[in-house]
């Protein structure tokens, strides 16, 4: 039976994750007619398999640590056990409430929600089964999925982050392959839940996209938590039996574990979706765009993880909103990847925005960096956390990057991103008052020092 063509929409969006649904909501808000195609669950990776469930697990992990460490605060507590059924119930409850809310939002904005697997079949059409959705503009937003390594099959004791969200019990020994954001977050969760954890990373340092001082401090703090870290080591292979998985490293050393978590990055979901056939320029599976997120095919845009750059939900939101506004003719300012805040929610947390010191030196040369230790910050002492705030700026110029590590430092990234994206100078920030006692004061202190008037800073 021939596919039937629907009357044209202003925008047809393929993929209902962070990038796709934010585009749909903003476009509908602007009065455009919108079709949103999703084959699985509205909300995509972030809501169902990524940000939200992992952050619920990390919060449960924090509760476990708090119970274990009560005595350090004079409160007699102990950790009895981790009930993974209970943890999953909590995690799934959070996701379910947000999912319901999101479905309500999409229904409330008159978005035509189409369930099914879609394909780009021309510059103006997406075909879903028998239905042909025609759009004045088409937005590709099919996201990403977990990668593995050649010869490493995901099955049994070898899992990705997706299966790791559904474990029935805490494994005794875990090897985490990959020391990027997802790898260190899961390593942190498993350790808090009582597992012996080893991280294997081929690069010379963990969270290699972050400033080098951050990686060094994170490695030290994770080692203090008795997480074993093997950097600069290549994975060679893995075999499994009913009882264990054996991971072999380059050089022949082997590690035995109950679970191998493969966290070696995420690749774009673009294969077999018609992008190539319609002539959309691709690069190693990613969709190539200009800064206005236009692909090589007129009228076809792309947002989110399929566009090269940091794979973050809030980047997807920002790009989705940008594209909707651009299609509506509002001429919005393009999203700058460097100005997107980044948080790694392990214990301790890492948060940053802008350029690392090395990248800033390479780009500008005349750069200063100032590091304020959390040892001088009252609230951090109350929380018994250490770490630092590091500010990188152009000499006599604006702030180029802010890099932070310590418990709860993710909460500080809001001000840091405002400072960076506003192009603020140190003395402008130093003139603003930071509440006492908060960890936020550590940011304020760094700027006081950079402005030449340090308060609680030595040397
Ligand atoms: C474990 C983990 C933790 C994470 N934690 C964070 C975090 O704390 N903070 C953060 O900012 N980011 C985090 N991320 C990353 C974040 O989830 C992604 O950057 C974000 O989801 C990307 O949004 P997207 O819309 O591009 O893709 P996705 O969310 O992957 O959505 C794509 C959607 O397209 C649908 N789709 C694909 N093909 C088709 C088709 N042919 N037809 C119809 N529908 C289709 C999929 O079903 C999916 O729903 C995490 C990711 C993971 C895996």
Bound molecules: flavin-adenine dinucleotide
Name the beta content range: 25-35%
Shape: globular
- Give the integer mean of the pLDDT values: 97
How much helix, percentage-wise, in residues? Answer: 25-40%
Based on secondary structure, the structural category is alpha/beta
Put simply, the count of helices is 14
How far is the first residue's CA from the last residue's CA?
Answer: 78 Å
CATH architecture of the largest domain: 3-Layer(bba) Sandwich
Question: According to CATH, what is the topology of the largest domain?
Answer: FAD/NAD(P)-binding domain
For this structure, what is the CATH class of the largest domain?
Answer: Alpha Beta
Total discrete domains: 3
Tally of DSSP β-strands: 25
Largest sheet: 8 strands, mixed
Q: What does the radius of gyration come to?
A: 24 Å
Tell me the CATH superfamily of the largest domain. FAD/NAD(P)-binding domain
Overview of this structure, please?
This protein is of the alpha/beta class. It folds into 3 domains: 4-145 and 268-337, FAD/NAD(P)-binding domain, CATH 3.50.50; 158-264, FAD/NAD(P)-binding domain, CATH 3.50.50; 348-450, 2-Layer Sandwich (Enolase-like, domain 1), CATH 3.30.390.30. 32% of the residues lie in helices and 25% in strands. It is built from 14 helices and 25 strands. A hairpin with a 4-residue loop joins strand 14 and strand 15. Helix 3 runs antiparallel to helix 4. The protein is globular and about 70 Å long. The protein binds flavin-adenine dinucleotide (FAD). Residues 14-20, 37-40, 44-46, 49-51, 54-55, 117-118, 141-144, 161, 182, 269, 273, 304-305, 311-314, 316 line the site of flavin-adenine dinucleotide. Flavin-adenine dinucleotide binds next to helix 1, strand 3, helix 2, helix 3 and helix 9.
């Amino acid at each position: 039976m021939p596919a039937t063509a629907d009357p044209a929409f202003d925008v047809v969006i393929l993929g209902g994750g962070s990038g796709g649904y934010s585009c749909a909501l903003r476009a509908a808000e602007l009065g455009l007619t919108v079709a949103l195609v999703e084959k699985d669950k509205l909300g995509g990776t972030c809501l169902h398999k990524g940000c939200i469930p992992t952050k619920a697990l990390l919060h449960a992990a924090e509760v476990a640590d708090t119970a274990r460490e009560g005595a350090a605060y004079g409160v007699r507590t102990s950790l009895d056990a981790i009930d993974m059924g209970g943890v999953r119930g909590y995690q799934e409850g959070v996701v379910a409430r947000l999912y319901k809310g999101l479905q309500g939002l999409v229904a409330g904005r008159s978005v035509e929600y189409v369930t099914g697997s879609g394909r780009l079949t021309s510059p103006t059409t997406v075909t879903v089964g028998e239905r042909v959705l025609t759009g004045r503009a088409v937005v590709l937003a099919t996201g990403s999925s977990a990668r593995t390594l050649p010869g490493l099959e995901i099955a049994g004791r070898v899992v990705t982050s997706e299966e790791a969200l559904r474990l029935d019990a805490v494994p005794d020994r875990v090897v985490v392959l990959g020391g990027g954001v997802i790898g260190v977050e899961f390593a942190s969760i498993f350790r808090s839940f009582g597992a012996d954890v080893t991280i294997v990373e081929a690069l010379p340092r963990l969270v290699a996209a972050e400033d080098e001082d951050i990686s060094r401090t994170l490695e030290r703090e994770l080692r203090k938590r008795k997480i074993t870290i093997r950097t600069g080591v290549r994975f060679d292979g893995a075999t499994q039996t009913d009882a264990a998985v054996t991971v072999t490293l380059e050089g022949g050393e082997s590690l035995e574990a109950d679970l191998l978590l493969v966290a070696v990055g995420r690749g774009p979901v673009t294969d077999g979706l018609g992008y190539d056939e319609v002539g959309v320029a691709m690069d190693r599976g990613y969709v190539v765009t200009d800064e206005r997120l236009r692909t090589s095919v007129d009228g076809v845009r792309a947002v989110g993880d399929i566009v090269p750059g940091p794979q973050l939900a809030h980047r997807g939101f920002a790009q989705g909103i940008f594209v909707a506004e651009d299609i509506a003719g509002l001429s919005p300012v393009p999203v700058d990847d460097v100005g997107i805040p980044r948080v790694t929610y392990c214990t301790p947390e890492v948060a940053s925005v802008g350029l690392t010191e090395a990248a800033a030196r390479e780009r500008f040369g005349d750069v200063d960096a100032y590091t304020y230790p959390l040892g001088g910050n009252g609230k951090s002492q109350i929380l018994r956390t250490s770490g630092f705030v590091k500010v990188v700026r152009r000499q006599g110029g604006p702030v180029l990057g802010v890099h932070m590590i310590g418990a709860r430092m993710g909460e500080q990234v809001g001000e840091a991103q405002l400072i960076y994206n506003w192009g603020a100078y140190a003395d402008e920030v130093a003139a603003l008052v930071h509440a006492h006692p908060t960890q936020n004061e550590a940011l304020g202190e760094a700027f006081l020092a950079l402005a030449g008037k340090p308060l609680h800073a030595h040397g």
